[in-house]
TrEMBL record:
Catalytic activity field: L-glutamine + H2O = L-glutamate + NH4(+); beta-D-GlcNAc-(1->4)-Mur2Ac(oyl-L-Ala-gamma-D-Glu-L-Lys-D-Ala-D-Ala)-di-trans,octa-cis-undecaprenyl diphosphate + L-glutamine + ATP + H2O = beta-D-GlcNAc-(1->4)-Mur2Ac(oyl-L-Ala-D-isoglutaminyl-L-Lys-D-Ala-D-Ala)-di-trans,octa-cis-undecaprenyl diphosphate + L-glutamate + ADP + phosphate + H(+)
Oligomeric and partner information: Forms a heterodimer with MurT.
Species this protein is from: Actinomadura fulvescens
Keywords: Cell shape, Cell wall biogenesis/degradation, Glutamine amidotransferase, Hydrolase, Ligase, Peptidoglycan synthesis
Active site: 95, 195
Transmembrane segments: none
Entry similarity comment: Belongs to the CobB/CobQ family. GatD subfamily.
Reported function: The lipid II isoglutaminyl synthase complex catalyzes the formation of alpha-D-isoglutamine in the cell wall lipid II stem peptide. The GatD subunit catalyzes the hydrolysis of glutamine to glutamate and ammonia. The resulting ammonia molecule is channeled to the active site of MurT.
Name listed for the protein in its UniProt record: Lipid II isoglutaminyl synthase (glutamine-hydrolyzing) subunit GatD
Pathway: Cell wall biogenesis; peptidoglycan biosynthesis
Residues noted as binding substrate in the record, renumbered to the chain: 129
Presence of keyword Protease: no
Residues annotated as domain CobB/CobQ-like glutamine amidotransferase: 9-202
Keyword check for Hydrolase: yes
Length: 241
């Protein structure tokens, strides 16, 4: 990010990838940047528009199978997100958006659909749909407190050697690939199955993306409410059996 212009947030494909209020993630980034005196500019790019390559943070939300396939095709043809990734942009994908960042994912009939290959993950149609609350302990090096969210996906994801798990599952399914992990990241590209929206429920995750984008530590903000929500959801999940 250059210091003389606002931090540019790019919401990818509101017409295809916006289930479960995932666009709320952009609002949280705007707000938490503003609290640190960092100006932002947010653009919403529909799937018939070219993806700008000068964004600082790109966000992709969840989607039903067919819109997800269309989004993957259009993003591959467009090529803008790859250019942005190669330039060091931060990319955050949720559920369908997470799967699209990987090499491939399962379509509505289980057919394998090519993704963008920006993150070393492979997704496929799982045997059971994962629906409910998910809680995870984040990789220590990311310095983010325990995360919670809502998951609803048929796909399962396996992480390759060039990516790392975002979290270890404490409750819920997460990636569902048999290794007890949730989400994945490599460099500044990060994905998760957590809706909620994820950054609303997990301000620590929002701050991680902002830290990556500005390349500096951020002033702390009192987030005790988020800790209370996390504990409440965890208790609800663990006591519901
Ligand atoms: N269609 C994908 C799946 O079922 C993603 C769903 C979602 O984004 N919630 O795995």
């Amino acid at each position: 990010m250059s210091s003389n212009r606002p931090l540019k947030l790019v919401w990818i494909y509101p017409d295809l990838l916006s289930t479960y209020g995932d666009q709320g993630n952009t609002i949280v980034l705007e707000r938490r940047a503003a609290l640190r005196g960092i100006p932002t500019e947010t653009v919403h790019m529909r799937s018939d528009e070219p993806v700008p390559t000068d964004g600082d943070i790109y966000l992709l939300g969840g989607g039903e199978d067919r819109p997800q396939i269309l989004a993957a095709q259009r993003l591959r043809n467009d090529g803008g997100l790859r250019v942005a990734a190669e330039g060091g942009a931060v990319i955050f994908g949720v559920c369908a958006g997470f799967q699209i960042l990987g090499h491939e994912f399962g379509g509505e009939e289980g057919q394998l659909v090519p993704g963008l290959g920006l993150l070393d993950i492979r997704s496929f149609r799982g045997e059971q749909r994962a629906v409910g609350e998910v809680v995870g302990d984040v990789a220590t090096e990311l310095n983010v407190p325990r995360i919670t969210g809502f998951e609803n996906h048929q796909g399962a994801t396996q992480i390759g050697p060039n990516a790392r798990p975002l979290a270890r599952v404490v409750a819920g399914i997460g990636n569902g690939g048999g290794d007890g992990t949730e989400g994945a990241y490599a460099g500044r590209i990060l994905g998760t199955y957590m809706h909620g929206p994820a950054l609303v429920r997990n301000p620590g995750l929002a701050d991680l993306l902002l830290r990556w984008a500005v390349g500096a530590e951020l002033q702390p903000i009192d987030d005790s409410w988020a800790g209370r929500l996390r504990e409440e959801r965890l208790n609800a999940v663990l006591t519901s059996g």
